[in-house]
């Protein structure tokens, strides 16, 4: 499949993948294709008539085995904005409770004529398994602590829109790196696009082995803060953690939480991101989360354009003339 939506600078975008499973396997050109396509969809969402017909007749299903606010609604709205039919599956209330397997469930849903399956699951590799067993396109909407490619893309897209570039920037990912699929997707995408990436947090949440991915590992936020163009604060994932990885929430917030005092030590134009959901008062205080450096809600807005771009490219549709 290929799609030839013109990028803003009119270079043709060629896309051949049937699935979007992670940023690790994407080339720089493919990352740029997604970002450049999303740039055009930002404009669509600002129009009075926010609808295109690119995916008319296609069916997109959200298959979520974990809770979600942003990703699920964003994919639903993105699909509707491109005129696809949408279905929402949640494991609660389904025949999974009668013993039906994950693959059988997905195959039965696919048998209704699905074009794209958007999958979130607590087990790393679950979307990859479906990609091997199904004929439709599969998008990873978060698989355990492995990857969350559209979140990584929307974080990178937000940085690029505000800073004008990725190449040469220093981006800190702060917090629970060990349990974070968002961190992995950000690391793969940012490094390919030429950023310097620092992962920072307590040594129990930021193992030294992350240097093997090509990032800098740090354990003192105040030391690295003056070097950072962007600080992306990741949620402490209480649901994925063994207990005892840091002494207390209060201690974590004191050493790694972004508050007003810490913000004053950062560059005047530092950009603050958080993938959400946020634990207010833990990773970030309310006045910083809602303050002028924060692009947290812009990330959500940009997520819509990224998901429209992903659906558009995977469906291989030619562009509708504006
Ligand atoms: N950032 C993110 O994935 O949010 P949700 O869990 O609400 O989808």
Radius of gyration: 19 Å
Helix content: 25-40%
According to DSSP, the number of beta strands is 9
C-alpha end-to-end distance: 22 Å
**What would the average pLDDT be, to the nearest integer?**
92
Q: What share of residues are in beta strands?
A: 5-15%
* Arrangement of strands in the largest sheet: 7-6-5-8-9
Q: N-to-C SSE series?
A: HEHEHEHEHEHEEHEHHEHH
| Major β-sheet annotation | 5 strands, parallel
Shape call: globular
Name every ligand kind in the structure.
phosphoric acid mono(formamide)ester
Structure description:
The chain is α/β, with parallel strands linked by helices. Helices cover 36% and strands 14% of the residues. It has eleven helices and nine strands. The chain has helices at residues 28-46, 70-81, 102-110, 126-133, 149-163, 181-192, 221-224, 249-256, 260-265, 286-289, 296-315, and strands at 59-64, 85-90, 116-121, 137-143, 170-174, 196-200, 216-218, 230-233, 271-273. The strands form two sheets. Strands 7-6-5-8-9 form a five-stranded parallel beta sheet, with helices on one face. Strand 1, helix 2 and strand 2 form a beta-alpha-beta unit. The longest helix is centred in the C-terminal third of the chain and has 20 residues, at 296-315. The model has no long low-confidence stretch (mean pLDDT 92). The structure holds phosphoric acid mono(formamide)ester (CP). The site of phosphoric acid mono(formamide)ester has 10 residues, from helix 2. Phosphoric acid mono(formamide)ester (CP) binds at residues 68-71, 142, 148, 151, 275-277.
